[in-house]
Write a structure and sequence with these properties.
single chain; 361 residues; mainly alpha; MetI-like fold; 15 helices; MetI-like; MetI-like_sf
Length: 361
């Protein structure tokens, strides 16, 4: 197993570099880069005749010819545009920019946001609590509910319980997350009915003045609706996957043999079937966790006024804030690759019969 882990770790760096090359290349063909974004802001504001400070720089722009006339109506001077390109690093060839970026990332130097006076690491750490809350709780709740429910549905396959629970989870899967979030706000956040939960935010304004128990309760109070809205669509996939896995295993010969020996049904299900049936469920855990943690919370964050990684990535893409885009992409890609290795380790832990050493990858 050690050799396999070393091979997987050795593939992390070239895979990550490949991801970055593809995305960096695609970005070169996207119109409206950071320089164009900054120029559009300046021309829209019309505040360049006396001086300008943008993207955290101390650069000042003097009017052409020494006059104090407004320059927006005449366009920006080429010297100013060249200075912007130099500040953003676009005065160098793309290959040189990419190599410098990767060298900085390998040293965990992710630079500073183009349009905010804050480093990318500090910006990500600032937004991380929201994404951790949504991703962690949504994944845990989905697995804690779906696995027992799927097992129960498999045991009572074809019963009335199986029928109505299937209808309920499929209906939940069919409801878009943003629509369910709005429904929760209308019903339970003071929309038209009850005001049980807060409308926005992760904590109350007086959170720092609360006791430890009060802080925990206040946090759970705020996160309840966003987590429910994020989790609702996950139940169907995990529940039906668990049910079908159990049904496939129950029909196999070793289960019939165990029952013929007189083992209790609970011992058969959880001592023999569970270990084999859970393999495919665990295989999907990294994708579920990483997807919920980083990618699927944009709409939920917007509806509940939460400032997390979802909104950060969207705003960075719109503003062409390349350090934020590529920095978060590098970190998320690295986490995804490492989680994939951890998933294989979980395979071996649950079923020691699996031996990845025999694989040629």
């Amino acid at each position: 197993m050690g050799t396999y882990i070393l091979r997987r770790l050795a593939l992390v760096i070239p895979t990550l570099i490949g991801i970055m090359i593809i995305n960096f290349t695609l970005v070169q063909f996207v119109p409206g880069g950071p320089v164009e974004q900054m120029i559009a802001r300046i021309e829209g504001q019309g505040d360049v005749f006396g001086g300008f400070a943008g993207a955290g720089s101390d650069m000042r722009i003097e009017a052409a010819g020494g006059s104090d006339a407004y320059l927006g109506s005449r366009g920006l001077p080429p010297e100013f545009i060249a200075e912007l390109e130099r500040q953003f690093g676009f005065d160098r060839p793309p290959l040189e920019r990419f190599l410098k970026m990767m060298w900085d990332y390998m040293r965990l130097d992710f630079g500073q946001s183009y349009f905010r006076s804050i480093s990318v690491i500090d910006l990500v750490l600032e937004k991380m609590p929201v994404s951790i809350s949504l991703g962690l709780w949504s994944t845990l709740i989905a697995y804690m509910v779906s696995i027992p429910l799927g097992i129960r549905k498999a045991v009572r396959d074809g019963s009335r319980f199986d029928t109505w629970t299937s209808g309920a989870i499929i209906a939940g899967y069919a409801i878009p997350g943003f629509l369910f979030a709005i429904l929760l706000l209308v019903l339970f956040a003071g929309g038209s009915y009850w005001r049980i939960f807060p409308l926005r935010g992760l904590t109350s304004d007086n959170w720092h003045d609360l006791t430890l128990v009060g802080k925990v309760l206040d946090y759970l109070w705020h996160i309840t609706l966003p987590v429910l809205a994020t989790t609702i669509s996950s139940f169907a996939t995990l529940t039906l996957l668990t049910k079908n896995s159990f049904l496939d295993e129950v029909k196999k010969q070793y289960v019939m043999t165990a029952r013929a020996k007189g083992l209790a049904e609970r011992r058969v299900l959880y001592g023999h079937v569970f270990r084999n049936a859970m393999l495919i469920v665990i295989a999907g855990f990294p994708a579920v966790f990483v997807g919920v943690f980083f990618g699927s919370s944009l709409i939920i964050e917007t509806i509940f006024s939460l400032d997390g990684l979802g909104r950060l990535g969207f705003e960075a893409a719109v503003a062409r804030d390349y350090p934020v885009i590529f920095g978060t992409l590098f970190v998320l890609g690295l986490i995804g690759l490492v989680v994939g290795i951890l998933s294989d380790l979980m395979y071996v832990w649950i079923d020691p019969r699996i031996d990845f050493e025999t694989r040629n990858t």
